[in-house]
Amino acid sequence: MIVAFSVTPLGVGEDVGEYVADAVRVVRESGLPNRTDAMFTSVEGEWDEVMDVVKRAVAAVEARAPRVSVVLKADIRPGVTDGLTSKVETVERHLAG
Fold this sequence. Notes:
Shape: globular
Number of strands: 4
Order of helices and strands: EHEEHEH
Number of helices: 3
Strand content: 25-35%
InterPro entries: MTH1187/YkoF-like (IPR029756), Thiamine_BP (IPR002767), UPF0045_domain (IPR051614)
Domain Thiamine-binding protein: 3-92
Family: Belongs to the UPF0045 family.
CATH architecture: 2-Layer Sandwich
CATH topology: Alpha-Beta Plaits
Low-confidence stretches: none
Structural class: alpha+beta
Number of domains: 1
GO cellular component, one term: cytosol
Distance between the termini: 28 Å
Protein name: Thiamine-binding protein domain-containing protein
Helix content: 40-55%
Strand order of the largest sheet: 2-3-1-4
């Protein structure tokens, strides 16, 4: 499965980059395949391990912010691995053709 999620600390002002970095650090240290862009961090793995990473990433922000907002989207597709790369490669192949 692939989960794309964003964690937004509330009540800490407009500059939230350092709080978001705390969440991304948890994801990167998890060892699961992941990718971060301007809006979301995506992580790939089995349900329990991915949800554990999301929970710990939220907790890292929650430890420093009085309120946290989370947006999450999941692609649950048993048997598929390397979806983070293969889904993008498919789109790129269509764009090149």
